[in-house]
Amino acid sequence: MDLSPPAGENYAHPRICFFHVLFKAAALAFYILSALFVNSFVIIFVITVLLGALDFWVVKNVSGRILVGLRWWNEINDEGESVWRFECLDQESMARINQKDSWLFWWTLYLTAVAWIFLGIFSLIRFQADYLLVVGVCLTLSIANIVGFTRCRKDARKQLEAFATQTLASRVTSTIQSAFSVV
Amino acid sequence: MSRNPDSDTIPLHSTSQSDIDEIENLINSQPYPSSVLPARPPSPPRASIPISSSPLPPPAPPLSSSSNSTKPIPVPPAAAKLPPLPPSSNTRSNGTSNVGGSSSIAAAGFGPAPNTLTEPVWDTVKRDLSRIVSNLKLVVFPNPYREDPGKALRDWDLWGPFFFIVFLGLTLSWSASVKKSEVFAVAFALLAAGAVILTLNVLLLGGHIIFFQSLSLLGYCLFPLDVGALICMLKDNVILKVVVVCVTLAWSSWAAYPFMSTAVNPRRKALALYPVFLMYVSVGFLIIAID
C-alpha cells in the first residue's frame, strides 16, 4: 500500500467519498473537542456513538458497495445456522474500480481504527472508564467493518485468480483447437 | 462518451464524469431530501448485476413460511447491522465470495436479490427501517400466527436494540436528579453486558441459538421497559411506578420466553430463563428507584 493517492485520475464518486469520511471524522472530532465544550457525558456518549453507528452503516451499505464493490452480511439459514456472505462485483466491474476511491476507502478505514485505539489508550491512562466505553463501542464498529471488508477482498482476489486461470486455460484450449482445425 | 464495443474496458475518465453528471441530475430532480444521494448504478456498459452466490429465492417476510417462496422479492436480507463479528464457533466456511457464476452454496435457504450491490441508497434505508419495524412487531407484540418462535428472528438486526438501550439509558438519566452520567453509563453497560452474558449462558447450557440473534432478541424485548420508563419519567407517583414497572416487566419476560425456551433442552429451561428475568427485574428496580 502506498502512502500517496494514485495520480492521474479523479475520484469517481466524490460525494460518496465525502460521506465515507464525514461521519468518521465527525465522530472523532466531536469526541476530542467535546471535552472542551460540553459538560455532560451523556451527550458526548450518545452523539459519538450515534455518529459511529451511522458511519458503520454508511461504510457497510453505501461506500463499500460503490467505492470498492464489496459487500458482506450475515444470514441465518433454514437449519438455524449462521452463514457469513461475501459478495463482490464481477470481474469486469472490479477491474474498473477507481484506484483513488479504493485508496481512500481502505486508508480511512484503517486510520480511524488506529485513531480510536490511541484515544482508548489516553482514556485508560486517565482512568476514565466511561469514556473508555465510548471508545470501545466505536472501536468495535470500526474493527467489524475492517474485518468484514478484508475478508471480502481476500475472497474476491481468490476468485479473481481462479477466474483468470480458468480464462487462460479456456483460451489456451480454444487456441489449440483452432490451430488444429486450421491444420 | 465513446465506447469501443470490442474492448472490455471503458476509459475511467469519461465514466467518472458521467457518474458525476448522473448524480447531479438526480439531486436536481429528486423530490425527497435524503442526506446521502441514491447511488446510481454504474453506466450501462458495466455489468451491473453481480453474479452472487445463490440463485436461491430471497426470504419472504418473516410471518409466512420462508423456504419455498420463489418470488423475486426485491427485499433481500442483506445488511446485518452493528457489530457482526464473525462468530468463532459456528461459522461454516461459507464465506467464500461468489463471483463469476461459481456454484451456488445450496445450504442457505435465502439468497440476496441480485441487485443489492447496485441498488440506490434510499432502498437500503427503507429496507433496513422496515426490517426494524417487522422485528419489533414479531418479537414484542402478541401474535397468534407466529410460527416456530425459534425461527422468527432470522433477519436479526442490532439497530433496534441499540436504539432501545440508548433510549432507556437516556430516560433513566433524565429522571435522575443527581449523577446523571453515571446512571446512563451504568444502564448502558448493564444492558449491553447483560445481553452478551445471557447469550453466553444459553450457549453454555448447550442451547442452539445464534449469538447475534439472541442479542437482537434481548434488545427488542426491552421495548416494554422503555415504555414503562417513559411513563415513570413523566409521572412521579410511586404506586403508579410500581404498577407500570410490574406490567412492563411481565410483558418483556413474556416476549423473551418463547425464544429462550425453545433454544435449550426442556430440562434446562429454567436455567436459561431465570437470568433473563433477573436482568429485567434489575432494570425494573432501576426505573422505580430513580427519583
TrEMBL record, chain A:
Membrane-crossing residue ranges in chain numbering: 28-58, 103-125, 131-150
Subcellular location(s) of the protein: Golgi apparatus membrane; Membrane
GO annotations of cellular component type: Golgi membrane
Membrane topology: Multi-pass membrane protein
BP GO annotations: protein secretion; vesicle-mediated transport
Top-level taxonomic group: Eukaryota
UniProtKB keywords: Golgi apparatus, Membrane, Transmembrane, Transmembrane helix
Pfam family name, one: DUF846
Family according to the record: Belongs to the TVP23 family.
Role played: Golgi membrane protein involved in vesicular trafficking.
Cross-referenced PANTHER family: GOLGI APPARATUS MEMBRANE PROTEIN TVP23
Name this polypeptide is given: Golgi apparatus membrane protein TVP23
The organism of origin for this protein: Coffea arabica (Arabian coffee)
UniProtKB/TrEMBL annotation, chain B:
Signal peptide positions on this chain: none
Protein's UniProt keywords contain Transmembrane: yes
Residue stretches spanning the membrane: 158-176, 183-204, 210-231, 238-259, 271-290
Biased composition (Pro residues): 73-87
UniProt feature, compositional bias: Low complexity: 63-72, 88-105
One Pfam family, short name: Yip1
Yip1 domain location: 153-285
Annotated GO biological process: endoplasmic reticulum to Golgi vesicle-mediated transport
Family statement drawn from the similarity comment of this UniProt entry: Belongs to the YIP1 family.
The protein's name: Protein YIP
